[in-house]
């Protein structure tokens, strides 16, 4: 079983179509809604964890794209700039999913993007700007960080 | 001091460093060695124990002499990349403090502020070899007629650049918790309401002053690892207080001792000097410090064998108590416990997170150990040790 966190962006023209329902019905995928935000008539964003075999995940993503849903892998949106991280651990106490966690006994901090729910907390906490500021649920955020 | 079985001097240890026979362990390795050998044998075998810490230390900054301009200027306002440096010194000397914010920083007007660039970042940029913009303003005098001077400079262009920190390396520190009902943004990180999480700083068993709790070997003139280069202890830091409550092993159970340090910025590296932005709080500098502790006798061997199980931090509420100037301990917790990532407070599980980088602190202690072993770093004997209080001695050698 593989697992992938994906961000789905529904533009207004497809917002009220039953795409997710068909994804659940037609594909052998377990999915988990991690976060969702709907701006009526403008845009909807859903952060989804997809679980299933690699190729079913692939097929599911293709199905979504065929239905004009913008699909982004979370791993392409959230990352840690390794050379900026000093492994202090400050982020680990606030990361809600332990995507950021301390490996003991070395006390190094590891980041597992597949556990990340893009809450943005680490971006606020990290004193060194090592965690890319995540503002996936602010539709005006895109393109603001130049 | 005839009461000890082992009695070594700084000079004897330095001789061993020069002839390559010195035995050096990190403070982490010393724990095992002393357990295995006992304090007397450990003191006989081990000459130096190296410590390390890499933490955010706001009371830091740099003295910069930017050289005389043509025509000459006696600057009374200086800005480095838009961050003000104190210029109330001679013509072209200034001091940039780590916590100084950019002139155009919105601060906490939109709360919580992000404080993306400040004095600490200027210092990091300088040691990274980056060019910074210097702007100096003056009122003009007969001997210094220039009123405005602007220049792009990198570290090598400054005739003198020293890191000069009034308070670093707090011996021990609070475990910060928030018992109020709203999230707070502090120098101890972001704390959730109702005691949901707690943060601690210092590197515990590796921390310099926790390995010499009565400052028997540390004082003015102690040569140290500072920001990746070599620096010196120039005395106690501000707020140094040896009279803090101590546990039976002599280790302080709260803030206590501090160091004031100085070193040549040109020898330092951004790996161990990093500008920091604390959301809702301000700018700062993360400083790497390593202090070598000479094992002069079995008492010092015992001190340096301290482990996280035996070091207690006071739990302090930053929601109400601390801002009100109270900060009474609500309890004590060991570093070993905090390092597991969880502790119990008031019958509830609380997530704990460190703010100092233990893994880099260990790298500092290990680097210092290599320097000493290679003969390139001898010990500086303090001309005067830090203010201390008497210690009754251990009874169990
Ligand atoms: S807070 Fe930043 S620097 Fe510290 S461990 Fe987390 S990502 Fe790394
Ligand atoms: S955005 Fe940061 S804090 Fe939030 S889940 Fe992802 S890694 Fe954890």
Describe it for me?
Chain A is 18% helix and 29% strand. By secondary structure, chain A is α+β, with helices and mostly antiparallel strands. Chain A folds into 2 domains: 2-74, Alpha-Beta Plaits; 77-135, Alpha-Beta Plaits (2-Layer Sandwich), CATH 3.30.70. Chain A is globular and about 45 Å long. The termini of chain A are far apart. Residues 141-146 of chain A have low confidence and may be disordered. With 397 residues, chain B is an alpha+beta fold. Chain B has a domain at 61-162. Chain B has helices at residues 10-19, 27-45, 119-127, 298-304, 335-339, 358-373, and strands at 24-26, 48-50, 53-56, 61-65, 77-80, 83-85, 93-97, 132-137, 148-153, 160-168, 175-177, 184-186, 189-191, 197-200, 219-220, 223-226, 229-236, 259-264, 273-278, 282-290, 292-294, 312-317, 332-334, 342-345, 348-354, 384-385. In chain B, strands 3, 4, 7, 10, 16, 17, 18, 19 and 20 form a 9-stranded antiparallel sheet that branches. In chain B, strands 23-22-11-14-25-24 form a 6-stranded mixed sheet. In chain B, a hairpin with a 2-residue loop joins strand 24 (342-345) and strand 25 (348-354). In chain B, helix 2 packs antiparallel against helix 4 (298-304). Chain B starts with 9 loop residues before the first helix and ends in a 12-residue tail after the last strand. The model of chain B has no long low-confidence stretch (mean pLDDT 97). At the A-B interface, helix 3 of A face strand 14, strand 19, strand 25 and helix 6 of B. One iron/sulfur cluster (SF4) binds next to helix 3 of chain A.
Which properties best describe this structure?
heterodimer; A: about 150 residues; alpha+beta; Alpha-Beta Plaits; 2 domains; four-stranded antiparallel sheet; two-stranded antiparallel sheet; 3 helices; 6 strands; disordered C terminus; B: about 400 residues; nine-stranded antiparallel sheet; six-stranded mixed sheet; 6 helices; 26 strands; about 15% helix; about 30% strand; globular; binds iron/sulfur cluster
